[in-house]
Amino acid sequence: MITIIAAAGENNELGKDNQIIWHLPDDFKRFKALTSGHYIIMGRKTFESFPKPLPNRTHIVITRNKNYSVPDGCFVVDSIEKAIAICPKNETIFIIGGGEIYKQSINMADCIELTRVHNTFDADAFFPTIDSTKWELVSSQFHDKDEKHDHSFAFETYKKII
């Protein structure tokens, strides 16, 4: 199963200058819980936004740079199709960004795990619009803002309509 996992603002904002534009500890915890032990597929800029590879995950980086170097245990490919092809079959794989990779993979995915951040932001990267004729919202769990979270948000799960 191919699952897209992302956090996006009300206008589908993802980030600015290759950085996340909010701090939501519960979103980080959910991301870690869902993706640990799995293959994660990302674009080069997303990979470079991490200080080091995320523990307990196999990283596949998509880039057109044929000489791009990654640490041991990570893989480099030049397309979303090649990234998916090297993942184990019959396991959930996660597409983790960024905006261009989400756009290329949304029609291939089976599930979207979206943290909807209830605010609007200045951004330069965006999540594709979720087409309600192709995707059904199957669960939504609201979290109000609190001392650890500057914004309210909801964990939303979408399944592809077959």
UniProtKB/TrEMBL annotation:
Q: Which reaction does it catalyse?
A: (6S)-5,6,7,8-tetrahydrofolate + NADP(+) = 7,8-dihydrofolate + NADPH + H(+)
Pathway stated in the Swiss-Prot or TrEMBL entry: Cofactor biosynthesis; tetrahydrofolate biosynthesis; 5,6,7,8-tetrahydrofolate from 7,8-dihydrofolate: step 1/1
Similarity annotation: Belongs to the dihydrofolate reductase family.
Ribonucleoprotein as a keyword of this entry, yes or no, is no
> GO cellular component terms?
cytosol
Q: What class of enzyme is it?
A: oxidoreductase
Query: Which EC numbers does the record give?
Result: 1.5.1.3
Q: Which UniProt keywords apply?
A: NADP, One-carbon metabolism, Oxidoreductase
- GO BP, one example? folic acid metabolic process
- Give the protein's recorded name: Dihydrofolate reductase
Entry annotated with the keyword Oxidoreductase = yes
Q: Name one Pfam family in it.
A: DHFR_1
